[in-house]
Amino acid sequence: MPHFGLMDEKNLTAEEAALLRARLHIRSGRRILKEGKTDLALSILYDALGHGLKYYKIKHDLVVTIKGADGELHQNELAIARELMQSGVIADLDFIDRFCSLINQALDGVVADFNPGEFLAGFDAVMLRLGVMPFSEDELPPEEPGKS
Questions:
Q1: Taking every pair of C-alpha atoms in the chain, what is the biggest distance, in angstroms?
Q2: 141 belongs to a structural domain
Q3: Residue 114 confidence (pLDDT) above 60
Q4: Which of 20, 51, 52, 87 has the most CB atoms within 10 Å of its CB?
Q5: Residue 99's Cα: distance from chain center in Å?
């Protein structure tokens, strides 16, 4: 994962760790998407979304009821997203539903009808609402520890 070796978690609160993970995953996912590795990039950006949702949940002390098995793919993220939609933070779940569909396709190794520009516009809009973006990459540790 993009955050391994780049975070000193014992010196971060849960909120800080979720935010940093989301940002590190955004940076890495965007780079990998530019390299044409769509399946891998989508997986990494999905992790960014998950950490962004967790960040918002922690920061705002949201209580979220998870419907379905806690470990079931997407259940935590969708439960938080539904709560944020009901509270007006996210306009609707259309992008997140489409993203879940894309991630399922990526896991199967077949991503159809993918427009990176359109996808990133929707992704950025959600991450802005969550307070994860904007950020400066200068605030993040270098991707290769020890290099500046």
A1: 44
A2: no
A3: yes
A4: 52
A5: 10
| Within-domain flag for 103 | yes
| Torsion from C-alpha of 82, 83, 89, 92, nearest 10 degrees | 20
Q: Radius of gyration over alpha carbons of the chain, in Å? A: 15
Residue 3 lies in a domain: no
Q: Which domain holds residue 26?
A: 9-136
- Is 58 a member of any domain? yes
H or E stretch at 81: helix 75-86
**SS3 assignment, position 87:** coil
Distance CA 83, CA 86 (A): 5
CA dist 85 and 94 (Å) reads 11
The number of domains in the chain is: 1
Given a contact cutoff of 8 angstroms between Cβ atoms, the answer to whether 15 and 132 are in contact is: no
CB 136 within 8 A of CB 142: no
pTM value > 0.85? no
Q: Which of 58, 51, 39, 147 shows the shortest CA–CA distance to 103?
A: 39
